[in-house]
Write a structure and sequence with these properties.
This protein is mainly alpha-helical. About 50% of the residues lie in helices and about 10% in strands.
Length: about 170
């Protein structure tokens, strides 16, 4: 099984990064998380539409957009401070999603009995391929709106006097 990758160009990333740097870290992360969740929704919808029901008949309904992985999924992924969004089947209904997506080779029980193999039925990668343009368009639209909402929320809290210590320090207050 080979790992495939994809690339895309996001114009305005430097300006977006500068605007995010103007916000306290928690507000910037919240804005990024909001825009990524909205951009991921069309990919998740496309994956649900393409997914077979799978061996347990619950695969399609288990596809979600999430900001976290289960402990068993996090192997080697310790990126403190990074904002990530994950699209995929949740556990336990989707615990065989990878077998459906990539298929299996011939399988045998310990006693040697042959139990078959499963051909690949990709649904996640085709979902990304079909909806990436829509997802990136949403990301472009949402980027500045999410920043605007975060800045408005920050200003409202500053006026009401409910601004946290780190935000006051960040804003020089």
């Amino acid at each position: 099984m080979t790992k495939s990758s994809f690339t895309f160009k996001l114009e305005g990333a430097k300006e977006l990064d500068r605007a995010l740097a103007e916000l306290p870290k928690a507000y910037a992360k919240s804005a990024l998380r909001d825009m990524l969740k909205k951009a991921a929704k069309p990919v998740a919808d496309a994956a649900r539409a393409r997914a077979p029901e799978g061996p347990n008949r619950k695969l399609r309904g288990s596809i979600r957009v999430s900001t976290r992985l289960k402990e068993s999924q996090r192997r080697g992924r310790v990126k403190r401070g990074a904002v990530e969004i994950f699209i995929g089947a949740t556990y336990p209904p989707g615990n065989n999603a990878h077998l459906v997506e990539f298929g299996t080779g011939p399988r045998y029980h310990k006693n040697g009995k042959y139990v078959g193999q499963m051909p690949p039925k990709p649904f996640m990668r085709p979902a990304w391929d079909a909806s990436k343009d829509q997802a990136l368009a949403i990301l472009r639209e949402e980027a500045w709106m999410a920043l605007y909402r975060a800045a408005r929320r920050l200003a409202k809290r500053a006026v009401s006097g409910k601004l946290g210590k780190s935000a006051r320090r960040h804003l020089g207050g």
